[in-house]
Amino acid sequence: MVQQQVVAVALLIEEQVVDKALQPAIVSGQRRLKGQLIPQSLAQQSQLPQALEFRYLRVMRIAVHPSAQGLGFGSALINEIKGYAQQAGIDFVATSFAASSNVVNFWQKNGFTPVKLGFNRDASSGEHSLVMLNDASLQAAQQKFVQQVSAEFYEALSCWLADEFSQLDYSLVMKLLAIAPKSSLPPITARDREKLLAFKNNANLYRLARPSLARWLQVYIAKISVAQINIDHGNVDQNSVGQNNLAQENLAQENKAKLLAALKPLVAKCLMLHQDADVCQRFGFTGKKALYQHFQQLIKLS
């Protein structure tokens, strides 16, 4: 509260399936209980009955007064919710919402991890529903569960982008790839580097290099998203202080955004398998030659 006025509110619901006799039917999708969104959806996707047994505190709604938005009250309320959940013995704080890059960014900044993206678009919002979890218990078993379901989600996402999510908003795709846990990223082998270098020198080798390019792209997006990268100006000096430091940080963020934007055509082509003509039209390239030259210029192997 600010000067005795409410500025942020949240609607919460606790979810848990305690009847083990129902677990097989729920996991197989033959049975669905009302009011148990998170445990049931995670159990069905992961095929792990243990997902039903955890206690979840789902944030159904969170709202901040318009005059108080952008001041950190939403994040402060989330922190209070996480503290309450830990004291109450809750395993996870969870949320499910119509996914957009801005909303994903809010929850990710508050310690939540993507674990499930719905295949069907919501009838009212027109967006896919994303489930994100925060480990409120700080216990090893719960941490292992989040790591497992998140890793499996990202492993599958790299395949789903070419089919089930091929029409997903590019900004949302980039955001999801940018916050991928390090443990979920594919390894880049010496052979991958050789194939990437071959494509960098010869655009006709794109098809042969595409599997390696797809792995490199996922790793590169995640890497630059957590680094202070300054295009054409070298690395930002993190030890500088004062206004100079702030200016450098702002420039780094701006250039990082430019680099991520430059990678969108490659994501569309390499991960989402969009046709060359469609990618050229969407991103303003004059033709396939110009598009592939852009791809070649993006490859960094250092």
Question: Gist?
Answer:
This protein is of the alpha+beta class. Helices cover 51% and strands 15% of the residues. The protein has helices at 23-27, 37-46, 50-53, 73-87, 101-109, 140-160, 170-178, 190-201, 206-225, 242-271, 276-283, 288-298; strands spanning 8-15, 56-64, 92-98, 113-121, 128-135, 229-230, 234-235.
Looking at the structure, what is the overall shape?
A: globular
Shape-level CATH architecture of the largest domain = 3-Layer(aba) Sandwich
Number of helices: 12
Roughly what percent helix? Answer: 40-55%
β-strand percent reads 5-15%
Through-space gap between termini: 50 Å
- CATH superfamily caption of the largest domain: Gcn5-related N-acetyltransferase (GNAT)
User: What is the overall pLDDT average?
Assistant: 88
Outline the biggest β-sheet. 5 strands, mixed
**Total beta-strand segments:** 7
InterPro entries: Acyl_CoA_acyltransferase, GNAT_dom, TmcA/NAT10/Kre33, TmcA_C_sf
Keywords: Transferase
Pfam families: GNAT_acetyltr_2
Organism: Thalassotalea euphylliae
Description:
With 302 residues, this protein is α+β, with helices and mostly antiparallel strands. The chain folds into two domains: 8-167, Aminopeptidase (3-Layer(aba) Sandwich), CATH 3.40.630.30; 185-298. It has helices at residues 23-27, 37-46, 50-53, 73-87, 101-109, 140-160, 170-178, 190-201, 206-225, 242-271, 276-283, 288-298; strands spanning 8-15, 56-64, 92-98, 113-121, 128-135, 229-230, 234-235. A five-stranded mixed β-sheet has the order 1-2-3-5-4, with helices on both faces. Strands 6-7 form a two-stranded antiparallel sheet. The chain is globular, with a radius of gyration of 22 Å.
